[in-house]
Amino acid sequence: MHALRASVQITTRPADTPPTEAELAELVPGHDAVLCQLTEPMSRMVLEAGAAAGLRLVSQVAVGLDNVDLAACADLGIAVAHTPGVLTDATADLTMALLLAAARRLPEAERYLRAGRWDVWSLDLMAGLELRGAVLGIVGLGRIGQAVAARARGFGMRICYASPRRAPSDVEASLQAEWLPLDTLLARADVISLHVPLSADTHHLLSRARLGSVKDGAILVNTSRGGLIEEATLADALQTGPLAFAALDVFEEEPRVHPSLLDRHDVLLVPHIGSATRATRLRMAQLATDAVLDFAAGRPLQHPAR
Ligand code: DGY
């Protein structure tokens, strides 16, 4: 905010709750740029209202852009900047934290102890999944998917991945990663981790049918976007199998979590904190601010959306 105030005139919306589309359509016109978060619905209606009164840049403090209508931005000549790269490690770390917690049954083990139920050590108490040799299926081998795969290799996991395009051979070789069709990956992976952006093509990628076709006892981890999973059907896949556990950082209608998940012991739920380290959040804010300042000074954007 200090850097922005020194160079450009700004209007802020000091509120903790996200604006509605209608409110944004009132607020945005008259501004050259909008600096927004993933909670802001930058829809065609909002963008059209903005573009009619000078809007030329949307700078988003996130890498994911599913709240921004990119087609409308292209039609209206509005540039879009986002924050790739700086949150890769933090998000991969949280993915591993969820994966480890799920594999070693940490939420269940902690509840068990706190409830005073632990009275004796026994050989099979809270026996979970051994990571060495287990198969990690990564859906989307971009920056974050690769960072997760590298970490998982350190734990001795075997890596396979699904993505529309095959990764370069040096990436495959360094991660010893096998490219598979999505349905084969789902049938083979002990742990499935989602790392694709949410778009019309990936919405409900893990549909009820696909959730029903995962390997028996599989763990599902999602630190990407909630809309990738048909959330309303997840409880059924857990209840009747084959899915054994879901560790979720993201949800279809944040901050709402589907009520069928809230009381289950086979889910671990955290509030979209993948990038939430102090250093990463600062870098994200810095990049989004830099985009506005570059734009104001007529310099090219460092991280335009593609
Ligand atoms: C993103 O950047 O898209 C994350 O979901 C929030 O940091």
Write up what this structure looks like.
By secondary structure, the protein is of the alpha/beta class. It folds into 2 domains: 2-85 and 277-296, Rossmann fold (3-Layer(aba) Sandwich), CATH 3.40.50; 88-269, Rossmann fold. The chain has 13 helices and 10 strands. The protein has helices spanning 2-7, 21-27, 44-51, 70-76, 88-103, 106-114, 143-154, 169-175, 182-188, 208-211, 234-240, 259-262, 278-296; strands spanning 33-36, 57-60, 79-81, 135-139, 158-162, 177-179, 191-194, 218-222, 243-248, 267-269. The strands form 2 sheets. The protein has a 7-stranded parallel beta sheet with strand order 6-5-4-7-8-9-10, sandwiched between helices. The protein has a 3-stranded parallel beta sheet with strand order 1-2-3, with helices on both faces. Helix 7 links the parallel strand 4 and strand 5 (158-162). Helix 2 packs parallel to helix 3 (44-51), helix 3 (44-51) runs parallel beside helix 4 and helix 5 crosses helix 7 (143-154). The longest helix has 19 residues, at 278-296. It starts with a helix and ends in a 10-residue tail after the last helix. The mean pLDDT is 97. It binds (2R)-2,3-dihydroxypropanoic acid (DGY). (2R)-2,3-dihydroxypropanoic acid (DGY) binds next to loops. (2R)-2,3-dihydroxypropanoic acid (DGY) is lined by residues 38, 62-64, 87, 274-275.
